[in-house]
Amino acid sequence: MASNKILMIAIVTVFLPTIAMATTYIVGDSSGWTINFDYQAWAKDKVFYVGDKLVFQYPQGVHNVFKVNGTAFQNCTIPPANQALTSGNDTIVLATPGRKWYICGVANHCSDYGQKLAITVQYSYGWAPAPTPSSPWAPAPSVPTTPPTEPWAPAPAPSSPWAPAPSVPTTPPTEHWAPAPAPSSPWAPAPSPYPWI
Ligand SMILES: *[C@@H]1O[C@H](CO)[C@@H](O)[C@H](O)[C@H]1NC(C)=O
Ligand SMILES: *[C@@H]1O[C@H](CO)[C@@H](O)[C@H](O)[C@H]1NC(C)=O
Ligand SMILES: *[C@@H]1O[C@H](CO)[C@@H](O)[C@H](O)[C@H]1NC(C)=O
To answer: What sequence ranges are listed for the domain Phytocyanin (predicted)?
Structure first.
């Protein structure tokens, strides 16, 4: 629906300054990055956008952070040690949209103590690449910006101030092009010139 698309663009435009502001998340909040913490519950009510940051905080040497794929996340497969983040205050910028997985690679913290985090990162208008027609949020180029010139097209409805799209009727209104009412059938008796008969 063209009007839905336009409404969405209007909403995104209105809220663009809010969306474009990057958020920094301390993973686990005051608990930090640790064992026996439900990181899925922590992430559940959050919406992560490209440009946001995750900060993993933990006592250096007690834990670490590996970015892994979904398979390694499921299985707690620990990558080579040289891929670990180990500062105890590891900041990760969410640079691309999609599913992201993080695990602790120390001992069996991932497999036995649930020290693993999976999130989904959403596009953000402020950080997204230029719109392409394939992007679901891109404006469709086919939406007309001016009313069509057909003589029977009504003027765009002025009820929605933000909606530039004309509402194009699927069937033309009848009043301009409809044939005149059929003349009385040739076989019909002419009105009597003598109404008193
Ligand atoms: C996930 O990562 C592991 C190594 O960490 C790799 O062997 C595996 O092929 C990857 N799986 C996918 C689906 O990319
Ligand atoms: C998952 O881990 C188990 C035990 O460590 C291993 O045998 C299995 O091959 C792993 N599976 C994948 C898909 O990595
Ligand atoms: C963690 O790193 C951020 C910058 O990434 C810094 O602003 C902050 O002060 C650091 N916190 C600690 C406790 O080191």
So the answer is: 23-123
Q: Which atom of ligand 2 is nearest to the CA of 71?
A: 13
3-state secondary structure of 126: coil
In angstroms, what is the span from residue 89 Cα to ligand 2's centroid?
30
Domain membership of residue 65 as a residue range: 25-122
Q: How far is the CA of 69 from the centre of ligand 1 (A)?
A: 6
Closest Cα to atom 3, ligand 1: which residue?
72
The domain spanning residue 94 has which CATH number? 2.60.40.420
pLDDT in tens, the chain (197 residues): 444 444 444 444 444 444 557 999 999 999 999 999 999 999 999 999 999 999 999 999 999 999 999 999 999 999 999 999 999 999 999 999 999 999 999 999 999 999 999 999 999 755 445 444 454 554 444 444 444 444 444 444 444 444 444 444 444 444 344 444 444 444 444 444 554 44
Distance CA 46, CA 56 (A): 16
Q: How many residues does the chain have?
A: 197
